[in-house]
Amino acid sequence: MGEIKVELDLLKQFTRIFNTSNEQNRMFFAPGRVNLIGEHTDYNGGHVFPCALNIGTYAIVRKRDDKMIRMYSMNFENLGVIEFSLENLEYEDSHDWSNYPKGIIYTFKKHGYSIEKGFDVLFYGNIPNGAGLSSSASIELVTSVLLKGLFNLKIDMVNMVKMSQQAENEFIGVNCGIMDQFAIGMGKDDHAILLNCQTLDYTYSPLELQGASLIIANTNKRRGLADSKYNERRAECERALNQLQVELSIESLGDLTPEQFEHHKYLIQDEVDRKRAKHAVYENSRTKEAVIKLQQGDIVGFGELMKESHESLRNDYEVTGKELDTLVKAAWSQEGVIGSRMTGAGFGGCTVNIVRKNKIDMFIEQVGRNYTEETGLIADFYVVQVGGGAKELVCETV
Ligand code: GLA
After folding, report:
1. Catalytic site includes residue 180
2. Backbone Cα Rg of the chain
3. Is residue 42 lining ligand 1, measured as CB closer than 6 Å?
4. What residues contact residue 248 under an 8 Å CB cut-off, 6+ apart?
5. Architecture of 2-206+387-393 per CATH?
6. Cα 381 vs. chain centroid, distance in angstroms?
7. Is the CB of 176 under 6 A from ligand 1?
């Protein structure tokens, strides 16, 4: 569906579901994100290099005169309209997906932002759910910009990014880092963002792929134990950091160069913790190097570092698994592929690929066939564009 078509369709659905006219409706959008390199470095105080996508979450909203909030998602139509009051913003299992936007309202209010009236809102997302392209951070940020717009709040994007992460950590209970919310809030057309997750200093880097495209491949493997394994990795890195801090005055693993790490790694007692820390340190340095290569126009060098990143995530961080490994392996042996690696938390989800434009059809066909032969699963492929961050859209009337 083209963007205009999506927007008109959503307006129609909104007026049908909430039984209102289409005046005073407003429309907001937040993208999904893909991380090009710098995986599992954000909560280790390292660098990440993500970009926002042109797919994401739309919200059509209209203010009410009372304190009721009514939410509807076209992605979960069977759950119907979910209703609650501004006076009662508790997490409720039965409210399912709407706990995400509810957590944002709760967090804004907790920080003292004045949200005195309710609203009706319809969401529609064209990011595949649970694929590791941040559909959750996307609905968080679209809710944040919607609150800012509807209630004229004085707040900048970085603060909305931080509050969205806080809502996910505290209200939803998922202990994610800041990368997803930052990429989605601060994305810029045709640019990726080099973000230092310790200081939140960032720079935009033009994503010039010299006749190649970004292709996301979805393993369609459910990310079963993803949350518990994610927390386990965080704990392993924390333990390694604590042991390094006995001798070193560092705040995070991101403070170490690979050389310093090699010198002091004996301080980490457990062999597994040592491997996890090694990944965090080397991946951080790889990310900075990769961005320099891209800026120098060395896209092949960038692709080689993507491969090293995947190997480190497979061997030292152990967050890949058969499906992701099979997809990247098939991609690496394919003509026209500049780089391929898993992206996001891992344990299923997607790979990100840089593929020469004239080889895309062959890539999709052959990598897809290989993957199915080896795993029995069918992969989905998306040729994506790099888009801007969360924002209000001009709302045409139907
Ligand atoms: C998930 C988290 C991010 C980040 C990545 C791994 O996407 O939400 O904060 O830790 O995993 O790089």
Report:
1. yes
2. 21
3. yes
4. 256, 260, 264, 267
5. 2-Layer Sandwich (3.30)
6. 17
7. yes
